[in-house]
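Final report, Chapter 2: Outcomes

The project's central promise was a pipeline that accepts a single protein chain and returns its three-dimensional structure in a standardized token representation, suitable for archiving and comparison. That pipeline is now operational. To close this chapter, we reproduce one record exactly as it appears in the project archive, with the input sequence first and the structure output second.
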Amino acid sequence: MAEEQKTEEEGEKKSSPLIKNLIMICGAILVPAIIGVIVFNFVLKPKLGGNEKIEKAPMVTNAFPETMGSVKFEEQQISVQTDDPDVVAPLLIEKITLVCQDEATIAMVGLHKDHFAAMILKLHQGRTRTELSDPLVKNSILEQIKQQANNLLGRLSPEMELKVLEALHVKFMIVDL
């Protein structure tokens, strides 16, 4: 038994330098880290203006009402005008979506979808490739679609306030044949 106690005491003596080394390593890491945090909070942060509270930017409210919806139209193919009569005319493939303010507008546009599709087709016809490639012309066409859609809604249902909020090109592609 005496021998067993001696080996246990020797094991404890051998492990104590290991524990001392671990404590020294932890101290060597933790003490500089704590000093660094203190220096940052009390010296650097005030100099860098970190004491100011950050104000959140005001949320940009969406101009569209929550009741809005959209009406998607079928893809249309329109012949593009060319300057040279000997060349095969390119083809414009476009698809429009109208963003409407409420369910009543969606229902009215859906009920008279053919009238709106014809109006959209008419606004795209007779254009050259150069015109259709210009982003300003594309935006102009979309604005005309929106205005004429609102005019058509006013004629179809003068007693109700129906409105198209936006016209979008979902697909717009010119294909050479």
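Archive annotation: The chain has a mean pLDDT of 83.
This record, like all others produced under the grant, will remain available to the consortium after the project formally closes.
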